[in-house]
Amino acid sequence: MYFFRGSIIALGVFVLVYVALSLMVGVGWRWLRRDRRSVSSATAYGLRILPLTAALVVVVLFTVPSFLRLEPRWDDEPMGGAVLALASAGLVVLIFGTMNTLLAWVRTARRVSSWTANLRALELQAPVPAFQTPESAPLLAVAGLCRPKLLVSSCAQRVLGRQELEMAIRHEVAHVRRRDNLKKLLLRACAFPLLHELERAWIEAAEIQADDEAVRDEQSALDLASALIKLSRLSPRAPAPALAMDLLTGNPSAVAARVERLLAWKPRVPSQPRGWYVGVPAALAAAAAAGLTYMWTLARIHQFTEFLVR
């Protein structure tokens, strides 16, 4: 009964933090979009994953330790309906996130296997295995987590020139280096109705960042822009699997914006990374403050959970 009671409290606190932060992030994102501020892929993804991460941190580092340290083992105080309802909602969130993640993984693996079965591997200069896929598959994408595969349709091979194909492959390899498919998997675990626009904004920003990592000079920028234009003119293909990054991810306006950006490419002067001058001391100060006030925080959280149980 003691550990069951602790599980109910942990689930209740989890769903409270998760939903509250998801609502706050959704409202904050709408404010950012209304102000037309550009947001990097790291910022967009950090905001998107923040509710789930923070909820797990609060439960693991604060709620569970406060319960184990301060809750009497012989206390048989009945639990109220509110905490039981919250715990049920938290359990639903966790089960739905787990099932959503597993389904995305299984469906992606099945679709990639169906496209690459009995097909020859391509001998391309790429750090991941490349396969020629049928015309019904996405034109050019990278799929998979542990062993990512580069999927190049026969149609894309016919349409693109050698330099254009090379640039398109370099773009997809950038997604592999950044583990964007793994990031998409984690997003499947924390689906929330109000955050779809933020997830779409992260994907668009990730495509732009992959463009930047692939391009090295004006000619390579023109080659990648030409590849995007040629492939976007082809008839629509099957959508990419859930855990895949398609070269033409996003709506046509997002692809057009990428083309315009590439056509206007100019060498960028690398900025000096100065963030650590502030970030490292701030992180150390926050860690020290958390350590000094940890026991006080556990007591306050235990008081809150006692109120929640009643």
Radius of gyration: 24 Å
Amino-to-carboxy terminus distance: 17 Å
Specify the structural class.
Answer: mainly alpha
If helices are DSSP runs of H or I spanning 4 or more residues, what is the number of helices? 11
As a percent range, the share of helical residues equals 55-70%
What form results from the Cα inertia axes? Answer: elongated
Strand fraction = 5-15%
User: How many β-strand runs?
Assistant: 5
User: How many structural domains?
Assistant: 1
**Uncertain spans, ≥5 residues at pLDDT below 50?**
none
Biggest pleated-sheet summary: 5 strands, mixed
What order do the SSEs take from the amino end to the carboxyl end, as H and E?
A: HHHEEEEHHHHHEHHH
Largest beta sheet: strand ordering: 1-2-4-3-5
User: What integer is the average pLDDT?
Assistant: 85
Features:
single chain, 310 residues, mainly alpha, five-stranded mixed β-sheet, 11 helices, elongated
Would you write up a description of this structure?
- This protein is mainly alpha-helical.
- It has helices spanning 2-34, 41-70, 81-116, 154-159, 162-177, 180-188, 196-214, 218-232, 252-263, 275-292, 294-309, and strands spanning 121-122, 130-133, 140-143, 149-153, 244-246.
- Helix 1 (2-34) packs antiparallel against helix 2 and helix 5 (162-177) packs across helix 7.
- The protein is elongated and about 75 Å long.
- The model has no long low-confidence stretch (mean pLDDT 85).
